[in-house]
Design brief:
By secondary structure, this protein is α/β, with parallel strands linked by helices. The chain contains eleven helices and 17 strands. The protein is elongated. The relative contact order is 0.16. The structure holds ligand LLP. Ligand LLP binds next to strand 10, helix 10 and helix 11.
Amino acid sequence: MSTKFPLDHFEQLQTPFYYYDLGLLRATLKSICAESKKYGYKIHYAVKANANHRLLNEINAAGLGMDCVSGYEVQCAIDNGFGQNGIVFAGVGKTDWEIELALAANIECFNVESVPELEVIDALARKTGKTANVALRINPNVDAHTHHYITTGLDENKFGIYTWDLENVLNVVQRLKNVNLIGLHFHIGSQITDMEPFRELCSRVNELQKWFESHGVKLTSINVGGGLGVDYSNPDINEMPDFASYFGTFHKFLELRPGQQVHFELGRAVVAQCGSLISRVTYVKNGRQTKFIIIDAGMNDLIRPALYQASHKIQNLSASGAEEKYDVVGPICESSDCFGKALLLPQTKRRDIIAIRSAGAYGEIMASRYNLRKFAPTYYSE
Ligand code: LLP
């Protein structure tokens, strides 16, 4: 039985729903701010992880900027007051209206991923008599050692400018009049729990800084992206990532020039642990080799296990005592609608309440209406 959750309250509610612990979110933000302030780092929240308005209020109040990857996210940043804390805009496929919206909002920086994109930003900025600040998103060819769907910094990925093309890109950027090159941007992947890939990223940044310096370019902004992972197996023991050692790694290994500002784009590390998907057991069914717990949440509510073979801790909040092995599955007509196989859980019965933990990042935001199901509602700890 868990004391973390208000089970009596949950029993009154229709399931499934997302439940957010705002106290934990606040504590996480406090730790991020305290540890990053030590080095004067600037944090942009990667809103792709979760755009829930109550969470955004807390994140905005903590003073984070926003990292966006679509015009809709830029609009969300503006609507939620993130403008004054700095909006950065990445993405390989920014369309004209998205660029125009960001130009009109005078965002802090476009993280540019190709030559044709640079040319379009320049042309659209010229039309409105503006100069856009740009950072070159460089694909550093660093292996993040994470799931291949969430690795972004390898030569085989579609993201960023490849280092072999740098000379050409620099020529273009210097020729264009309505873009102002202020820095470099990187993002090597997501759910990275070992500091080694970040250390490697720092040495690639150091090499690239030397290259730009030797070409007479002065950079003021170094954006190292996001990617810090969380502990999906032990969300109660490790309620938040070790931000001290994360920021400490960059402080130790990045060689900065005077006046340079380091930016981060954290998504998962901010919001993953404060969210749970709460569901009810519909049936317990005996298979030939396994017992199935069929719950009323499905892959449309949380797609991470189906899409990335991600494992989230699953708890039966209603039962305790002798355990049995179960596969926990949803009601969707797909075999991949499975949240966990051969899990040890207390003996489970119809109507027990199940919590799928660490679902605050890339959960609610990636939900769909597959099978014409409704989007799960949200509840909060306060
Ligand atoms: N910056 C850029 C340019 C990114 O592409 C991403 C994530 C982030 C920052 C934030 O990364 P984070 O700190 O959250 O790791 N849906 C997948 C994760 C996709 C991440 C995409 N990019 C999942 O559920 O694991």
